[in-house]
């Protein structure tokens, strides 16, 4: 067994999908980080690199974090972990120990530390803890990690993978009950460079689709799932439905994985990014509220982009949607995910240097 460590370095690698592409172009313009001070109902946790996606550990004490390069390309994409009590953040090193039954048996172990875009935690049928990781570093793949509790927190071991041989660029992933996954492909390209001008990617046209993989079945596009920049995704507990964000359409969509058709389009009024399950089976979304601001910051590589954001919840039984928070610009550079943990709501970002801990009571909201 060997272990791959993350190395701190500048990385050249739109929410986060375009963030990975941004650092491959011009040099960044300088931007100043907002003051790291508490505000009305929120407390920033700063200096941690942009945590684009978040997953709560099964003991409720830690957040697993996927780090993106940021709009200025100043970070290396990697996995990190935060102790919720101390708010201490550290890199999550990944040991390499392949095992049968984790992904495609023909997929080779990575030769470099996996990057991290969308991530998803689940409990496998045998009770073991699994973290799926969308990886753009060195290859386009979904990496299968096993997580184990230790006396110092959690340890990660690479067990297998499913590599993307086609042109679809992954954004997010969610495990399915039979041991497979559903992933969003945000667009098709031979690299992380977008295939269309930014203005066209943001105009609401269909650019991507859902993909699925399961043991004994190859990775494949799910017909009928085309959508405008598919982003975050979750799967219902019974595996029947995928809920995913159509980022540039400002919608959350419900897709029937058996009938291969969209059942619901739920307008949310902002560019909803990643999704998470909240209390009572609600679906939580978070994202920026101004495509124009994103376009300007992306073009100029402004790390601390001044843009507002929203966090909202969808009742997946009725389809009712409610905005929980609407936050003005200057607080968080590029909100991308909201996760409930310990009576609070943690909001991550695809650029900048922080996340927010927001006061939140599901029973009273």
UniProtKB/TrEMBL annotation:
Give the residue range of the signal peptide.
1-21
Q: Which UniProt keywords apply?
A: Signal
The chain positions of domain SMP-30/Gluconolactonase/LRE-like region read 111-272
Keyword Signal included in the entry's annotation:
yes
Entry-linked InterPro entries: Serum_paraoxonase/arylesterase, SGL
Top-level taxon in the UniProt lineage: Bacteria
- Pfam families for this protein: SGL
Look up keyword Cytoplasm and say if it applies: no
Q: What is this protein called?
A: SMP-30/gluconolactonase/LRE family protein
Instruction: Name its species.
Output: Geopseudomonas aromaticivorans
Q: What is the lineage of its organism?
A: Bacteria, Pseudomonadati, Pseudomonadota, Gammaproteobacteria, Pseudomonadales
């Amino acid at each position: 067994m060997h272990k791959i460590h993350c190395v701190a370095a500048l990385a050249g690698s739109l929410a986060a999908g375009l963030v990975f592409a941004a650092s491959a172009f011009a040099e960044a313009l300088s931007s100043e980080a907002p003051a790291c001070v508490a505000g009305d109902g929120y407390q920033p946790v700063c200096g941690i690199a942009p945590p684009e996606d978040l997953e709560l550990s099964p003991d409720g004490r830690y957040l697993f974090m996927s780090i993106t390069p940021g709009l200025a390309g100043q970070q290396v994409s990697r996995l990190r972990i935060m102790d919720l009590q101390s708010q201490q953040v550290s890199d999550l090193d990944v040991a390499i120990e392949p095992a049968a039954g984790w992904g495609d048996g023909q997929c080779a172990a990575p030769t470099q530390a996996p990057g991290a875009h969308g991530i998803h935690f689940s409990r496998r049928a045998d009770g073991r803890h699994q973290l799926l990781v969308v990886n753009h570093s060195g290859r386009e793949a979904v990496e299968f990690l096993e997580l184990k509790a230790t006396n110092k927190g959690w340890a990660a071991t690479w067990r297998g993978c499913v590599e993307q041989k086609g042109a679809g660029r992954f954004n997010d992933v969610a495990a399915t009950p039979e041991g497979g996954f559903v992933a969003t492909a945000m667009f098709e390209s031979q690299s992380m460079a977008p295939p269309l001008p930014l203005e066209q990617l943001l105009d609401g046209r269909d650019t991507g689709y859902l993909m699925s993989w399961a043991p004994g079945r190859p990775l494949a596009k799910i017909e009928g799932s085309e959508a405008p920049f598919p982003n975050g995704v979750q799967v219902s507990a019974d595996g029947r439905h995928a809920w995913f964000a159509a980022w540039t359409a400002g919608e959350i969509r419900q897709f029937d994985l058996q009938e291969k058709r969209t059942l619901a389009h739920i307008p949310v009024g902002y560019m909803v990014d990643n999704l998470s399950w909240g209390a009572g089976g609600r679906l939580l979304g978070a994202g920026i509220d101004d495509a124009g601001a994103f376009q300007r910051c992306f073009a100029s590589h402004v790390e601390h982009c001044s843009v507002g954001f929203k966090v909202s919840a969808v009742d997946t039984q009725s389809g009712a949607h409610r905005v929980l928070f609407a936050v003005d610009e200057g607080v968080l550079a590029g909100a991308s995910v909201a996760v409930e943990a310990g009576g609070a709501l943690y909001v991550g970002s695809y650029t900048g240097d922080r996340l927010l801990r927001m006061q939140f009571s599901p029973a009273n909201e």
